[in-house]
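Quick illustration, no need to memorize.
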Amino acid sequence: MASSGIAYPDRFYAAAAYAGFGAGAPSTAAISRFQNDVALLLYGLHQQATVGPCNVPKPRAWSPVEQSKWTSWHGLGSMPSAEAMRLFVKILEEEDPGWYSRIPEFINPQPVVDIEMHKPKEEPDIVPALTNGTGTSSIPEPKTISESGSSVETQDKVVILEGLSTVSAHEEWTALSVSGQRPKPRYEHGATVLQDKMYIFGGNHNGRYLSDLQVLDLKSLTWSKVDAKLQAGTSDSAKTAQVSPCAGHSLISCGNKFFSVAGHTKDPSDSITVKEFDPHTCTWSIVKTYGKPPVSRGGQSVTLVGTTLVVFGGEDAKRCLLNDLHILDLETMTWDDVDAIGTPPAPRSDHVAACHADRYLLIFGGGSHATCFNDLHVLDLQTMEWSRPKQQGPIPSPRAGHAGATVGENWYIVGGGNNKSGVSETLVLNMSTLAWSVVSTVEGRVPLASEGMTLLYSNYSGEDYLISFGGYNGRYSNEVYALKLSVKLDLQSSTKDQPTSDSTSRVLEPEVEISQDGKIREIAMDNADSKNRNDEANEQLLAALKAEKDELEATLNREGLQTVQLKEEITEAEARNAELTKELQAVRGQLAAEQSRCFKLEVELLHRQKAASEQEQAALDAKQKKQAGSGGVWGWLVGTPPDDDDSESS
């Protein structure tokens, strides 16, 4: 990120001393200044930046403070020192935005000198006028840009507001003189142009997310704030609420409305939120989507391709970098998780993306937690295959947080940074030839060399303009700059829409193909034999389609035979199943009969056992009675007198 006043690592050491981590500072200085969780995080980042990854054993359980400090440091893993320094300063700025102004001993301010863009300074105290290359002034009384990021006017300058027409120089950035109350300075906001109006929504200022919606009328160059509400329901009588503050989101115009997609919020949801704004009712509404939505994120790229939005990469709420690809169909509002082939870009955020010829998605730059990228990746949206094409011209330096806008076949890239300084040049990539070139360069610490700015395209009174807003390079900006594109670039970008003259020997047509090695090349055709080549191409295409048709028919026949065989096998299996079912039923009947017979046998056995028992009892009783009768005879033999009954009967 671009520094303010002093660069890294001096800026980190100044922040560390202010926070209480400097040499000789008491161990409780940071804890007394910040909340415990913030102080512990700052401690871990300070140790990571100055010592490196945690290399000390975990303290004993009876020292909870030291344990907490060790856990904060150890949790950073192998984070690079430069990244730890940057995060330390960023967290300090979020907790205490004015810290830098309160440490004069660490600041050596340089004199603020008005610096004109595109032209070197001839004298420190003189601001030369913009020239058109012939020594004459192309703007009689030009506006210049100071190093503080604010616009200043030369003496006796008379400002006449005539919209973007006040920008007369081509391919030179000009700070616009705007009226009305300017929005709060910010970066990581969303911006879009709709009906000659530039809308600015949300963003980040001093670590705080914003939720305001501002609009700049490009005809009068007047700022105004939109009192927008969030529609809580679908009916006209539904209640309204305030929209949640966010940053790192994307604004995409579509028809007479625009969408806000994704973004970081204070209380992030599980998945991406899509909001729609209607300028006629000044109302936000949450869009109901279908399918599996992507995980919530910020710093992603969202590209309009036909009636779909292509979302790539970003950083989720847990600071995990992403390189996944998702497509939202705006007609059905259905998400599609795309699994492309080839080698995708490394996980990243704060990159830019563009669509060429409604077929190719280009991804450039971005950053991870440790480095910035300058690679260019291309996704063929028809075959869903990634490739790394060969670039031509001066290859841009690594950067993140830059902004991009397309005009015809040209893709303009502005701003960004590499954790050390802001990028000063404005680049353009011809998406057909993949050739880079430099459009302009700014000097000094101006908002155009910032991260988190926005870049938009607008056609005003027949002229093409690029418009930038906001950004952060150590200072938050709310300046608006405009660059008028040259007629040469305009004609080059619109060649495909212009009729060719008889005197033109060769033209470039917007036909692009991808070769097997993954490179994109533009096909240059001669007008004289273009018709014959088209006929040959059509014949080849017809032959290829016929061959493909024959192959499909053969495949269909094979599939039909396999289907018949499977049906026969299914019929045989069903017949066998019926036979087995019958056999099973017969076995079950036999088993039931056997069970019934066994039951009868058991009953009969019980009856027999009972009869035998009764017979045995009867025999036993008879025997006992017999024994009782024989006892009377023995009594007579021994002279026992008979009973009285016996004597009476005798």
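Residues 105-161, 488-531 have pLDDT under 50 and may be disordered.
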